[in-house]
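Lab notebook, bench 4. Still working through the backlog of constructs that have no structural model yet. Next entry is a single chain of 243 residues. Request: give me the structure tokens for it.
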Amino acid sequence: MPGPPWLILPTYNEAENIERIVGAALGVLEQCAPDGHRLLIVDDSSPDGTGRLADALAAEHDAVEVLHRSEREGLGPAYLAGFARALRGGAGYVLEMDSDFSHDPADIARLLAATRDGGADLALGSRYVDGGGVEDWPPLRRFISQGGSLYARTILGLGIRDLTGGFKCFRAEVLEAIDLPTVRSAGYGFQIELTYRAMRRGFKVVEIPIVFRDRVHGTSKMSPRIAAEAMWLVPALRWRRRR
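Model written out:
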């Protein structure tokens, strides 16, 4: 029988969001996984005190734990550390989600159902399938996001509409099979690389429509460097496959 679901929340300067997002996510997990669940906060030494708030939440809730990392290395390494902890802890399903309410915690239940009950190995929260969408983004950011997914989809030959999204649910077997220690991308290219690796190994990937909303509190972590990494990563993945 598969182990419980683990939700990984990476944080850096999310003091304005962390208490509310943890409360909302726990409420959903208690409903859809009443027999057991874990919420792991991975904090990269946030200077705004997010880590201290996370420790207080862990003291208050038995299902919450915190992984403190000594320096900020990017989204990818934070998730890899969280995935490793979840797998060591016996997770049957591993979810990843932003900590700023860009992803609706209510959709946790739908992603988990797709992998636990719907036969998928990896469920992606997708902005670019029927029923999905984006709110509160300026036209340029919409163009960059949709263009990035189209670029990756075309070069890698995949049918997935939203390759750059960060709201996902993996069966544990997927993470165990895709050789996580060799993943090197640190920014949003990380999301492309994990989905690509899963599909290359024959796992069933489905897209679940979600509505993405821009953050209200805190500052976006997107930067030109992160976008550039994703641009060069895609042809690099194709080249590795040919080798």
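Notes after review: The chain is about 45% helix and 15% strand. The helical segments are 18-32, 50-60, 75-88, 108-116, 139-156, 172-177, 189-200, 224-242. Flag for follow-up if needed.
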